[in-house]
Write a structure and sequence with these properties.
The complex is a heterodimer of chains A (115) and B (113). Chain A has 115 residues and is mostly beta strands. Chain A has strands at residues 4-7, 10-13, 19-25, 31-37, 44-50, 56-57, 68-72, 75-80, 89-96, 104-106, 110-114. In chain A, strands 2, 4, 5, 6, 9, 10 and 11 form a seven-stranded mixed beta sheet that branches. In chain A, strands 1-3-8-7 form a four-stranded antiparallel beta sheet, with no helix packed on it. Helix content of chain B is 0%, strand content 54%. Chain B has strands at 4-7, 10-14, 19-25, 32-38, 45-51, 56-59, 62-67, 72-77, 86-92, 102-103, 107-112. The N and C termini of chain B lie far apart (41 Å). Classes of the chains: A mainly beta (115), B mainly beta (113). At the A-B interface, β5, β9 and β10 of A face β5 and β10 of B.
């Protein structure tokens, strides 16, 4: 199974600032996904990070607020821009390892608190 | 797009009893249905999954059943133990296309002694 390293694990940020979250996988994967999990809630997909092209955003999420980079098949970043307290959540990256493997696996998450 | 509903939102069982969590999905094209367990402060962990070409899959105390016609699938945990206490999420996707997972709302399972 793949090992996914996500950092930072947590951060406390001032409103109006930006935070970039990194996700590194120890093997090449086709697709990487970014999810948000608000306190006590389920996981909501923010976007699919496509290597070599722009990310595909879900309804309610826009590139200006959540810019994503995917420079290669093992790495992606999610930036949370111009943060407000409503952005306080856990952000998780996920990869699909293909049929018969571990399915979709998650990074350890980034717990973001905006004050 | 896909919509996944999950019930119940909370479930309390006594140790040794069985627990059943149910999910329904809306997109008949979905063909991959994983279940995740999330302990407090940790990442979701895949515990079992099923694909649409089978109706049931079992792994020790955990089983998942799928009814494609009715578009619902269920997680069954037998002989529950305190360490089964966690939040469980069902999900659905169209596997093989690197498609996104759509998650249910989650079930908080509490196993009491």
């Amino acid at each position: 199974s793949a090992v996914i390293s996500q950092k930072p694990s947590r951060d406390i940020c001032q409103r109006g600032t930006s935070l970039t979250i990194q996700c590194q996988v120890d093997s090449q994967v086709t697709m990487m996904f970014w999810y948000r999990q608000q306190p006590g809630q389920s996981l909501t997909l923010i976007a699919t990070a496509n290597q070599g092209s722009e990310a595909t955003y879900e309804s309610g999420f826009v590139i200006d607020k959540f810019p994503i980079s995917r420079p290669n098949l093992t790495f992606s970043t999610l930036t949370v821009s111009n943060m407000s307290p409503e952005d306080s959540s856990i952000y998780l990256c996920s990869v699909e390892l293909g049929q018969g493997a571990d399915g979709y696996t998650f990074g350890s998450g980034t717990r973001l608190t905006v004050v | 797009g896909e919509n996944v509903e999950q019930h119940p939102s909370t479930l309390s069982v006594q140790e040794g009893d069985s627990a059943v969590i149910k999910c329904t999905y809306s997109d008949s094209a979905s063909n991959y249905f994983p279940w995740y367990k999330q302990e407090l402060g940790k990442r979701p962990q895949l515990i079992i999954d099923i694909r649409s070409n089978v109706g049931e899959k079992k792994d020790q105390r955990i089983a998942v059943t799928l009814n494609k016609t009715a578009k619902h699938f269920s997680l069954h945990i037998t002989e529950t133990q305190p360490e089964d206490s966690a939040v469980y999420f069902c999900a659905a996707s169209l596997a093989g296309t690197a498609s996104k997972l759509t998650f249910g709302t989650g079930t908080r399972l509490q196993v009491t002694l």
